[in-house]
């Protein structure tokens, strides 16, 4: 179907709204005209579409950037479609080479089992678990056997496989490519055949593998799936993608107070991208809020709303309310209700050594740097003297905006 045909095909308000939700924040939706056709058929027949997201249970390293694709799944789930959360226990044995310049070490079956146990629990923080189909691709991959794998491999050429960007770069630069790595996109594509997928979601680095699903479904006589890729979430620094290695992330397992405060630390500009990719508010509600801010309302109001929504999702509404109050208390110089109790010895003890012993600074030199920057308080007063020595007693010590300890010095 070409684009002109789409414009002449009658599209109901329901399909138009579903398309708008589908396109919210996406990088690409391919082919869009086929997706419209699927949505229209679903509306006419009452048959929900099958929407697939596959994740390999690599070592859990989950932050809110990873939930961007899950959020899109939830939006489509709320439209009444069947979402399938696919755990790649078989493909993990191969190792996904996407975006890598070297062979990825495959995981052991024991590692896969341990990691897989956490994945659904994490996904359930975003998806509706009562309406989510959980599958493992070992169900159909293991029974293929050697002959089935050979037949599957015959349905794609080496020349087309080498069109994949990371394979092409590694080949032209003389880096090795193991033969088993070619099996990964084939197996991911075969997952779509086994599940009769109508739409597969993934990050932008998964585009080749997602399109493989379309190809193989056609090879097996099925209607090909559509492909939806989501952009990578920019981290707290407003520059790089969210990453633990960049220390610009919010972990979904972080405590509510830290999560809330970290969301409030992002820029007013970045906030709107986060609203699009992370919030469950409608685009109309976000546009109305943005108009209020443009009209003079304090941007912090919108940021607090976003922080409370995200904190509620991974904790609770009560925890989000408490985190907001904790943030207010800290901004006024107050001390949180619960802070670590630490005991150290050596009085009289220099402030740098105390910070190190209390695990408030990694080293004495870093402690001195924090003091030079005005980032250390004892009993609410900023410490400016690096030579300060504290006598026997108990002190509330603060480093930066969020790190506190009640230190008893003996």
Explained architecture:
InterPro entries: aa-tRNA-synth_I_CS (IPR001412), aa-tRNA-synth_Ic (IPR002305), Rossmann-like_a/b/a_fold (IPR014729), S4_RNA-bd (IPR002942), S4_RNA-bd_sf (IPR036986), Tyr-tRNA-ligase (IPR002307), Tyr-tRNA-ligase_bac-type (IPR024088), Tyr-tRNA-ligase_bac_2 (IPR024108). Its EC number is 6.1.1.1. Catalyzes the attachment of tyrosine to tRNA(Tyr) in a two-step reaction: tyrosine is first activated by ATP to form Tyr-AMP and then transferred to the acceptor end of tRNA(Tyr). A motif ('KMSKS' region) lies at residues 241-245. This protein has 410 residues and is an alpha/beta fold. It folds into three domains: 3-230, Rossmann fold (3-Layer(aba) Sandwich); 256-331, Tyrosyl-Transfer RNA Synthetase; 341-409, RNA-binding S4 domain (Structural Genomics Hypothetical 15.5 Kd Protein In mrcA-pckA Intergenic Region, Chain A), CATH 3.10.290. 46% of the residues lie in helices and 14% in strands. It contains 18 helices and 13 strands. It has helices at 3-8, 13-23, 32-45, 67-78, 109-123, 138-141, 145-153, 158-161, 165-172, 183-195, 207-219, 256-264, 268-278, 283-294, 299-314, 317-331, 351-357, 364-372, and strands spanning 28-30, 50-55, 82-87, 132-136, 199-203, 226-230, 341-344, 349-350, 376-378, 381-382, 389-390, 393-399, 403-409. The strands form three sheets. The chain has a six-stranded mixed sheet with strand order 1-6-5-2-3-4, with helices on both faces. A five-stranded mixed sheet has the order 7-13-12-9-10. The chain has a two-stranded antiparallel ribbon with strand order 8-11. Residues 1-8 have low confidence and may be disordered.
């Amino acid at each position: 179907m070409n684009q002109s045909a789409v414009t002449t095909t009658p599209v109901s308000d329901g399909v138009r709204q579903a398309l708008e939700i589908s396109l919210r924040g996406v990088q690409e939706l391919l082919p869009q005209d086929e997706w419209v056709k699927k949505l229209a058929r679903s509306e006419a027949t009452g048959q929900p579409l099958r929407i697939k997201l596959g994740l390999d249970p690599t070592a859990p390293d989950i932050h809110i950037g990873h939930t961007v694709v899950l959020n899109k799944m939830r939006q489509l789930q709320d439209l009444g479609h069947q979402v399938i959360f696919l755990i790649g226990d078989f493909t993990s044995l191969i190792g996904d080479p996407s975006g890598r310049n070297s062979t990825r070490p495959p995981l052991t079956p024991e590692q896969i089992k341990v990691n897989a146990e956490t994945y659904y629990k994490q996904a359930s923080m975003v998806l509706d678990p009562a309406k989510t189909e959980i599958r493992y691709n070992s169900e159909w991959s293991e029974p293929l056997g050697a002959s089935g794998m050979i037949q599957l491999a015959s349905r794609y050429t080496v020349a087309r496989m080498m069109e994949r960007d990371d394979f092409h770069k590694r080949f032209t630069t003389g880096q090795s490519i193991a033969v088993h790595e070619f099996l990964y996109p084939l197996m991911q594509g075969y997952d779509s055949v086994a599940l009769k997928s109508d739409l597969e979601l993934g990050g932008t680095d998964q585009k080749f593998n997602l399109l493989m699903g379309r190809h193989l479904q056609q090879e097996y006589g099925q209607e090909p799936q559509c492909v939806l890729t989501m952009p990578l979430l920019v981290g707290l620094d407003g520059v790089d993608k969210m990453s633990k290695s960049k220390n610009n992330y919010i972990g979904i397992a972080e405590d509510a107070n830290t999560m809330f405060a970290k969301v409030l630390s992002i820029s007013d500009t970045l906030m709107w991208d986060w609203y699009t990719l992370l919030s469950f508010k409608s685009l109309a509600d976000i546009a109305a809020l943005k108009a209020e801010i443009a009209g003079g309302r304090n941007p912090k109001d919108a940021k607090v709303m976003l922080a409370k929504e995200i904190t509620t999702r991974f904790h609770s509404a009560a925890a989000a309310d408490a985190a907001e109050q904790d943030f207010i208390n800290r901004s006024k110089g107050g001390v949180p209700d619960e802070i670590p109790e630490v005991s150290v010895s050596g009085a009289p003890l220099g402030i740098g050594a105390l910070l190190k012993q209390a695990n408030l600074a990694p080293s004495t030199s870093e402690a001195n740097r924090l003091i030079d920057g005005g980032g250390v308080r004892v009993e609410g007063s900023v410490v400016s003297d690096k030579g300060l020595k504290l006598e026997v007693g108990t002190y509330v010590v603060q480093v930066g905006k969020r790190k506190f300890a009640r230190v008893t010095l003996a």
